[in-house]
Each structure stands twice: as C-alpha cells, then as structure tokens.
Amino acid sequence: MGAAVAKQVERRKSVSSEKKALCDLNNSCGCGFPGCDYHPIDRKQWMAALNPEKLHVKQIVFPGTHDSATDRIGIPFITRPFAQCQSLSIYGQLVRGARVLDVRVQHDRRVCHGILLTYNVDEVISDLKRFLSETESEIVILEIRTEFGHDDPPEFEKYLVGQLGEYLIHQDDHVFDKTVAELLPKRVICVWKPRKAPPPQAGAPLWNSGHLKDNWIDTDLPSTKFESNLKHLAEQPPVSSRKYFYRVENTVTPQADNPVVCVRPVTGRIHGFARLFISQCFAKGCADRLQILSTDFIDEDFVNACAGLTQARIEGKA
Q1: Tens digit of pLDDT for each residue in 279-297?
Q2: Is residue 3 part of a domain?
Q3: Could you read off the pLDDT of 14-73 as tens digits, one per residue?
Q4: What range does the domain containing 201 cover?
C-alpha cells in the first residue's frame, strides 16, 4: 500500500511540474504568431470569409475535435465524465468552427469510446448534412474509424457513400493543390478507417488511412505530450509538398494508474496552450508543417487561432 501511495504522490508531482513548465514557457516566450489577432466575424462560415477562390486546401489550418461524437456518451454523472471529450453536438461543433471530426463506431453503427456507447452514427451524418445545407464554402474532414476492440460495421463504406455522395470530394492527391472554390460544390473529405474490411482504394469516393496520419501518444502529462507533438510535427514534410493530412492533438488523456480519471480536468492541463503550441511551431521552424490541430471541448479561441494562421498563410505572412 505504501508503495502505491508513494507512486501516486510522484505522479501528482510530475503533473504539477509539467503544467508549470508550460506556464513558464508561455510567460517567457508568449503565444504570438502571424494572424494571432484575427477573429472571424462568423465562425460558422470562417472559410468563406477568407475567400474560397484564394484559399488552397494546403493552406488551411483545420481546427478539429478529438472523439467528436461523445457529447451524450455513457450515463450522465456516472460513466459520462470518463469518456466525454466534447460538450457540443456535432452540429454545434461545426457551427463553432470545427472542420475535422473524429468519430469511432462499432459493428452496429453506434458511436463508441472504448466500451461506452452513445447514439447511432446516423445522428452524426444528419448533423453534418444540416450544417452543409446552411453553408456554402466550408470544407469538412470526416474521419470515421472502427473503435479498437470492435468489429467493422457491415457494408459501412457503401452506407457512407449513400449518405454523403453528393458532398464527397473523391480521393485524389491533386486536392491538396486546389482552392476551395475549385472543389465546390463537393465539400466533405471522408476518411474511412476499418479494422478488417478492405480500405478505400485510390480514386474512390472515400479516403483511406494513409491520407490522415498522426503520432498519438497516450499520456496525461501535458509537457510530455506538447513536446512529442512538436517533435513528430517537425518530422513531416511541409504542407506545400505533402499529399496526406497530418493531425496534431492538443489533448492529454486519463491514465488508469492516476487517481484523476475524468476527461475534462485531465485534458484541461494542456487545453489552454494551443496558441503557445502554434507559436512554438514558428520558434522551432516547423510551422509550415501544421495542418490539423485538434482539441477536446473545442472553444472559440481555439478556432480563432487556426483561422488566423490560415489567413496569414493566404496573405503570405506565414
């Protein structure tokens, strides 16, 4: 028992030390970067405001959400705090400015996070289509994967194409060099990542896992995650030459050996440092690699930061 208590004490010290490290870095270096003062007038249509005829896909810094469809997962006040990563619906996230969605499903098409379940993926598609019907020039990346430990939903690729066909931007490496206006009226890049079923093939309506990459590390230590994100981002080619999307997630996740296992207080250790991360990308010389930045519990300031850097790229300032 004494050894377990000592371990927990050390874990809490590590968390506190790493939070302080990020605070100190923020205080010493600041969080300024090209476009940091930009505030979209309407986050629901922030891409449209940047001029679709000038905005190239490779210039966009996409604000994304991690475990997007978990706003109503599990049982309120009982299991939900252990798996809820977003408080807004899919539609609410898109209206706030999110443009990358991370959705996990099991064999019966219900959305899940580990063993906890929520609504059918139909609700995700319905919210997305509602948003698309109310806007004209917003590009959305929808990643749907079979959750670890679960089986693929039967004929799911056919289902997605049937539901989103009119909006789908087909898998094509030339997309990265095109402007948003050149893609319209197609507006959804749907990445389907099955566990056992064959992946989408080149030229298909859906994109495969090779077109959306990341280097996830499972930790609740904020500075460890922050530095890992910078390291792996720096290893990627610049967005100007890359033919895949690369995601960095400004999140940390609860660990079983730590007494704090609810998502919100744990991810809060890094949540406020998204602007610091962008500024450090410039300091480390890897800002030209940044493309998708995702978060738990997305807020307006996070979207402003991504939209601001996107605007700076259009203007040749970043």
Answers
A1: 999 999 999 999 999 999 9
A2: no
A3: 999 999 999 999 999 989 999 999 999 999 999 999 999 999 999 999 999 999 999 999
A4: 9-314
Is residue 4 situated within a structural domain? no
Total residue count of the chain as it appears in this document:
318
Distance of CA 2 to CAs 6, 13, 16, Å? 6, 17, 21
What type of residue sits at position 126?
S
When divided into structural domains, the chain yields a total of: 1
Residue pLDDT, tens place only, 89-101? 999 999 999 999 9
In the chain the beta strands, taken as DSSP E runs, fall at 62-65, 100-105, 110-113, 116-120, 140-146, 188-193, 212-214, 245-249, 292-295
Tell me how far apart the alpha carbons of residues 141 and 131 are, in angstroms, rounded to a whole number. 13
- Answer yes or no: is 118 within a domain: yes
* Cα gap 197→130, rounded to integer Å: 29
141 domain residue, yes or no: yes
